[in-house]
Design brief:
Shape: rod-shaped
Number of helices: 12
Largest sheet: none
């Protein structure tokens, strides 16, 4: 019996000693020196692989996630660039923003050019067009009624309007509302009348004169009668 216990103890001791010795760390480690190389497929191979894969599920999810604006950008990107990736959509959106900015600037410039403030800033830019430098005589000695009637008899209603307008300037000068000078423009006289009660009425007859004379519009006798009434009304306002 004692003999069997000894043999059993001897076997167990040999097993544990071999196990411990097998788990010992070697004195010198050996490292793997093999160089790993990564390979990337060519673009052609990549396209061939993806052509064989059904990506319909991805397209369905993307279409569900984006709105009408993104779909519109996708359509434009495909139209101009042939593809509709994120960068392509961003480029199209930037282009749209710049288009809106430019159109907004054009609209703002157009509205400003039609404003009175724009006309004030221009000042005497168009002096040669709107003045009476071609009048080489003293307006106090001009028989305006005779000149107007002569132009009407010749059916030169544009010239008749010009004499009518010059007569209003003569009356305003006589009443010391403006200081008449042949080189002054309509805008100069408008500024001189800025604090008067008939500035608006003077602006209206100035428009008639500018449109008829410088716009070179052909007016009928009926048109002239309506304009003549407007000029007579202005004379009543300034007390002629």
């Amino acid at each position: 019996m004692q003999y069997r216990k000894f043999i059993y103890f001897l076997i167990v001791s040999i097993f544990f000693s071999s196990t411990i010795s097998g788990n010992r760390v070697p004195a010198k480690l050996k490292y793997d020196s093999v160089i790993v190389k990564t390979q990337k497929p060519s673009a052609v191979q990549e396209q061939e692989v993806f052509k064989k894969v059904d990506l319909g599920f991805a397209k369905t999810k993307e279409s569900a996630d984006i709105g009408a604006w993104e779909r519109f950008l996708n359509w434009l990107a495909k139209l101009f660039f042939g593809k509709s990736g994120y960068e392509d959509r961003a480029t199209m959106q930037t282009i749209f923003i710049w288009i809106f900015v430019v159109l907004g600037l054009i609209l703002a410039i157009w509205l400003f050019s039609r404003s009175e403030f724009s006309a004030f800033l221009r000042g005497n830019v168009k002096t040669a067009e709107f003045n009476f430098e071609d009048i080489d005589e003293d307006i106090s000695g001009i028989d305006f009624n005779k000149r107007i009637e002569h132009a009407k008899a010749e059916h030169d209603f544009r010239l008749a309007i010009r004499w009518l307008y010059l007569r209003q300037l003569f009356f305003l000068n006589e009443k010391a509302q403006i200081s008449w000078q042949p080189y002054k423009t309509n805008m100069d006289y408008m500024n001189e009348l800025s604090k008067s009660d008939f500035k608006t009425a003077f602006k209206d007859i100035s428009k008639v004169y500018e449109y008829v004379w410088y716009g070179k519009y052909s007016i009928t006798p009926t048109d002239f009668k309506a304009f003549e009434v407007q000029f007579r009304k202005f004379e009543n306002e300034i007390g002629v």
